[in-house]
């Protein structure tokens, strides 16, 4: 069944450790124009307002940098995504950094509070740190913990201020539902760069990770079938795709935290198209294109453009 797609642009980059991801969505649109592709410019496009001006100011929250601004982004995404879904639209997000994805999840859950949500997280990183466990304080490593309403206190290494703790509780409860997902309903693909604290919570919660080697040895079709079986009790699915899941030698280093030995663009395309065709999938997101770091002159945006074009065709057919 054809889905009524709305491209939702989110230029927020306040949770990353590097600058430039805010230019990612426009770099993809520019790549489409350069290649005389009309699939993006002819599509309904909506945006949320960013608070990237906060990058010019110091943050008081050492272990949850700019969490006050991120709370604003979460609330904006919660409202926008839930409204689109309630109007039978399919939100396809082009986002800057991955830290705001918890707001996307909040919006999905607000639209479907009684539905069980499965999450397919395609990424080099687990993004399941908390302010109590983070070594960097960068909140692009925390979106899944917000959705799980997790603190991971067994792996605690940081002491939080009262204000940071208060904001952390608020951000986990955006939309009035916490937790929003169950650990058993998360599936990772290509995660390969994690810290001990993340390994601890992944093991404790028994979150499934399909490594690059396993994806290759089993084949994409088999892995997709296994994931769909695992998520068979879920009513709806959200797919979050970080471009650093791909091997930078095959794409470029045009992303904030590239990690070698990732999946190929062809494998990424096959995985994403499979879920685009799944009737349970209600929202997809692509993040972390950073043209400022691209040594191949916008190559990551070009690769992402091709993937998005293919995914949109699958969503419409």
CATH class: Alpha Beta
CATH architecture label name: 3-Layer(aba) Sandwich
State the secondary-structure class. alpha/beta
Element pattern in H and E: EHEHEHEHHEHEHHEHEH
Could you tell me the number of beta strands? 8
Distance between the termini: 7 Å
Widest sheet: strand ordering: 2-1-3-8-7-4-5-6
**Number of helical segments?**
10
Q: Which blocks of ≥5 consecutive residues have pLDDT under 50?
A: none
Q: Please name the fourth-level CATH homologous superfamily.
A: Ureohydrolase domain
- Form type: globular
Strand percentage lies at 5-15%
**Which fold name is given in CATH as the topology?**
Arginase, Chain A
Provide mean pLDDT, rounded. Answer: 97
Give the total of domains: 1
